[in-house]
Amino acid sequence: MNRTIKKLGIITGVILIGSTFVFSTSTGTNTQSVDIKNHIYLPNTINFAGEKTPLHIVDVRERLDREMIININLHASTIISLKRAHRYFPIIEPILKKNGIPDDFKYLAVIESTLSNATSSAGARGFWQFMDGTAKDFNMEVNEYVDERYNLEIATQKACEYFLKAKQRFGSWTLAAASYNRGMAGVTKQLELQMVDNYYDLFIAEETSRYVFRILALKEIMSNTEKYGFVLPENTLYQPIKTKTIAVNYNIDNLYQFSKDQGINYKILKLHNPWLRGTELKVTEGKTYNIEIPTEGY
């Protein structure tokens, strides 16, 4: 074994520099060092929506530790979330507040979609990742012309309605958040089978087991950016874009021409109204749609 190590020229070790641990791997003349100093910043206390996380339980603390380490080191994803939050949190926060939903739920949108109109492999769509069935349950319009899952204001309102319903069912915001991943029926079944009454005592599928801890990790990091090394100058954050609203209760046969008539192009129209799914709009009877037209930044 010693000869093999000598032949390969591999030396590994842990070096203590001040209060920073560095894992050093040397192969020939190449050296790589990984700074893990941020690991020491696991918070001593944390809560979700005012409900304290029991970090004195070993597996609970380690599950949070895992998500903190992952998200501190997922630099690209965390940075893009911070940039987008500057634009989109001001839209999400007042809708949560109006509905009596704790502000912490905005971080659920971060872990669901990185604050974008994403589409998952399972078919969930939008900032809040509504599936077709759930969108139907909450009376969201989804057809070839309109998909309200891509309308941030509407989707946030519908997410609030879900959270309120789940909170009424479980009596816990933490379980309400977990059920957004697992489903209310799935969480209820496991609570009954395991004869427990809270999220942190549940043994549940890994995705749901990690879900609230991912929210907690992003909350902690995004609320304490300097502590975790994410210092972004103000001018690098994505700024809110001023728009005007056009109320439409009539069919639009050609959205390309409609865009030109508004002094923009079709790309800009779609970027600001991703809920418009095609090149025309057929209006559902009795309904009015608000189309956002930017007044700057195009």
TrEMBL record:
Pfam families: SLT
Residue stretches making up the Transglycosylase SLT domain: 91-194
SUPFAM superfamilies, per database record: Lysozyme-like (SSF53955)
Assigned protein family: Belongs to the transglycosylase Slt family.
Protein's recorded name: Transglycosylase SLT domain-containing protein
